């Protein structure tokens, strides 16, 4: 696909340009807004936001009118509300009932159960590979997911086996008659090109096992004693050692991890007595394909299949056959994912960055490309031609919304939300959003408000450092979705504040709460303006 502009210069100057635009834009005092109730302006006018800029648009889906408006046509950094755009395009492109199939092929002849050749797992871009699938076929998530464990206290693990899909594949291989593999086991990860520089913290990969993470849980024992270590998944790829100590209650929980040798992770630090839940820390795997290969070989052996090669080491991708050589008659196993709507729910509920970036890559693959950036063209075409979003008001560089170079207007976001309300599967899409005070990234936001349960919206948070003042800066905190108002109206809304200084994590959480308070005020009698 043609892209006239894609150079390092764009990446280098985009952030500076956006900062300049923000600095030159009107201040955005709520006094300049239209239809804002006092409960909303009281939050926006508080001292915390004296140097910040607010944007808001609410649209009544029953009356067809804009109601509250503030800087609605100005650019704002969207943070993770950008996931509405990437996941919206994927919802339209794949459909909510799409399933991903990950096959395993034998390469070589079979003699008395022995495969004289290689066993190849062909990665399909399945986000969870059975590692989150519940008995009813839905996908499990924790409100504070393990992907955020290193940045947000209180993250927990789900009970599902992260190796569930690989174990199913291994059992199928054995059931097909393969009892021994004399060749190698290989992961075919040629679905799309890897670009770790594009999304370094959450790079999309064709094969994903346990979100490409090692989970490490430190539980205090007695003051001065080593903390108890549990980690998962247990595979031949990695072992974990820990020197984490137990300290007195009230002391900070501080742990770090690093790969100290091939296949060996070291965890250091301290955990205080009484910490609840136990402290979860994660380490990103260095080579997802090699990690998956090791885990698959382990699963095959557990299923009773003898594999002659070592389970550790690199993935021998150089030995892969041509992509066109896989014959249906040589397929010995296949894992079929839950429906795509379950993945959308996971990504939006917990703001799953890897999943959002992977989605853009899958859009590119659907269009016949192995270049993930081509997925953004598919996204743009959907926004412009299908959802009728004013794309000149949308600037996005990835699926997750992790760049200061991303900007959108509240008007554009509400246009996208309005489009989904016209679809016959609107209820399913809406159900994938976090619910105020109930679940996902909104679970702990104003849970006691009467509005809890009536606001379904994607959150967005982008934080940076302010080394000069030894504090944090929030370039963006955002919320976008739907509100069932107290008088029976249904609103689509986009709410965002940019460039909020914060002295502590508590300040960051307060900004989160303040957006929840604004949403609750919009829900309430003074905010819901439509006629019943």
Set out the fold topology.
Elements: H1 8-24, H2 38-44, E1 53-60, E2 65-70, H3 83-94, E3 101-111, E4 114-122, H4 164-175, E5 180-181, E6 185-188, E7 213-219, E8 228-232, E9 239-242, E10 245-247, E11 254-261, E12 264-272, E13 279-284, H5 288-302, E14 306-307, E15 331-336, H6 340-350, H7 353-366, H8 374-386, E16 394-395, E17 407-408, H9 410-421, H10 426-431, E18 455-466, E19 471-484, E20 490-498, E21 500-502, H11 505-523
Parallel strand pairs: 4-5, 4-6, 5-14, 9-12, 10-12
Antiparallel strand pairs: 1-2, 1-20, 3-4, 3-15, 7-8, 7-13, 11-12, 16-17, 18-19, 19-20, 19-21
Helix pairs in contact: 2-11, 3-6, 3-7, 3-8, 4-5, 7-8
Family: Belongs to the peptidase S13 family.
Organism: Humibacillus xanthopallidus
Protein name: D-alanyl-D-alanine carboxypeptidase/D-alanyl-D-alanine-endopeptidase (Penicillin-binding protein 4)
Structure, described:
The protein has 532 residues and is of the alpha+beta class. It has two domains: 8-95 and 341-523, DD-peptidase/beta-lactamase superfamily (Beta-lactamase, 3-Layer(aba) Sandwich), CATH 3.40.710; 101-338, no CATH class. It has eleven helices and 21 strands. The strands form five sheets. Strands 1, 2, 18, 19, 20 and 21 form a six-stranded antiparallel sheet that branches. Strand 18 and strand 19 (471-484) form a beta hairpin. Helix 4 packs across helix 5 and helix 7 (353-366) packs across helix 8. The protein is globular and about 80 Å long. Mean pLDDT is 93; it is low at 4-28. Belongs to the peptidase S13 family. Residues 1-22 form the signal peptide. This is D-alanyl-D-alanine carboxypeptidase/D-alanyl-D-alanine-endopeptidase (Penicillin-binding protein 4). Keywords: Carboxypeptidase, Hydrolase, Protease, Signal.
């Amino acid at each position: 696909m043609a892209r006239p502009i894609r150079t390092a210069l764009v990446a280098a100057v985009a952030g500076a340009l956006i900062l300049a635009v923000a600095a030159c834009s009107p201040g955005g005092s709520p006094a300049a807004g239209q239809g804002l109730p006092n409960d909303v302006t009281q939050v926006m006018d508080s001292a915390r936001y004296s140097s910040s800029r607010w944007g808001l648009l609410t649209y009544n889906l029953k009356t067809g009118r804009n109601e509250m408006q503030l800087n609605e046509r100005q650019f704002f950094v969207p943070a993770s509300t950008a996931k509405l755009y990437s996941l919206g395009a994927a919802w339209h492109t794949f459909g909510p009932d799409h399933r991903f199939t990950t096959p395993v092929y034998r390469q070589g002849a079979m003699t008395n159960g022995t495969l004289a050749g290689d066993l190849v797992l062909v990665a399909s871009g399945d986000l969870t590979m059975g590692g989150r699938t519940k008995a009813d076929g839905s996908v499990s998530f924790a409100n504070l997911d393990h992907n955020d464990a290193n940045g947000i206290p209180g993250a927990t693990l789900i009970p599902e086996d992260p190796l569930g899909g690989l174990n199913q594949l291994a059992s199928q291989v054995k059931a097909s008659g393969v009892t021994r593999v004399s060749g190698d086991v290989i992961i075919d990860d040629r679905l799309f090109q890897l670009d770790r520089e594009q999304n370094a913290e959450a790079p999309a990969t064709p094969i994903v096992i346990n979100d490409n993470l090692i989970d490490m849980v430190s539980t205090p024992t007695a003051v001065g004693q080593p903390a108890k270590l549990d980690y998962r998944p247990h595979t031949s790829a990695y072992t974990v050692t820990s020197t984490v100590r137990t300290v007195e209650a009230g002391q900070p929980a501080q742990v770090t991890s690093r790969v100290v040798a091939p296949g060996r992770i070291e965890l250091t630090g301290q955990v205080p007595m009484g910490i609840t839940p136990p402290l979860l820390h994660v380490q990103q795997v260095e080579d997802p394909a090699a990690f998956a290969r090791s885990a698959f070989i382990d699963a095959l052996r557990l299923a009773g299949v003898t594999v002659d090669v070592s389970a550790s080491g690199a993935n021998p991708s150089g030995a892969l056959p041509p992509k066109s050589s896989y014959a249906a008659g040589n397929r010995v196993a296949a894992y079929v994912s839950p429906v795509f709507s379950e993945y959308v729910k996971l990504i939006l509920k917990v703001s799953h960055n890897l999943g959002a970036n992977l989605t853009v890559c899958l859009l590119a693959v659907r269009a016949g490309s192995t270049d993930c950036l081509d997925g953004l063209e598919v996204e743009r075409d959907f926004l412009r031609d299908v959802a009728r979003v004013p794309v000149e008001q949308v600037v996005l560089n990835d699926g997750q919304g992790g760049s200061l170079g991303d900007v959108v207007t509240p008007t554009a976001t509400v246009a996208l939300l309005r489009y989904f309300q016209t679809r016959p599967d609107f209820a399913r899409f809406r159900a994938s959003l976090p619910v105020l005070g109930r679940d996902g990234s909104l679970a702990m936001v104003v849970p006691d408000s009467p509005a809890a349960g009536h606001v379904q919206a994607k959150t967005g948070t982008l934080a940076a450092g302010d080394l000069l003042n030894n504090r944090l800066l929030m370039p963006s905190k955002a919320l976008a979705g739907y509100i069932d108002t107290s008088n029976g109206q249904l609103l689509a809304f986009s709410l965002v504040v940019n460039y909020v200084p914060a002295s502590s994590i508590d300040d960051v959480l307060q900004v989160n709460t303040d957006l929840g308070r604004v949403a609750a005020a919009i829900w309430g009698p003074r905010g819901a303006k439509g006629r019943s």
